[in-house]
Amino acid sequence: EAGVAQSPRYKIIEKRQSVAFWCNPISGHATLYWYQQILGQGPKLLIQFQNNGVVDDSQLPKDRFSAERLKGVDSTLKIQPAKLEDSAVYLCASTQHGLAGPNEQFFGPGTRLTVL
Amino acid sequence: TQLLEQSPQFLSIQEGENLTVYCNSSSVFSSLQWYRQEPGEGPVLLVTVVTGGEVKKLKRLTFQFGDARKDSSLHITAAQPGDTGLYLCAGESMDSSYKLIFGSGTRLLVRP
Question: What confidence tens digit (pLDDT) does each residue in A27-38 have?
Answer without folding.
Answer: 989 899 999 999
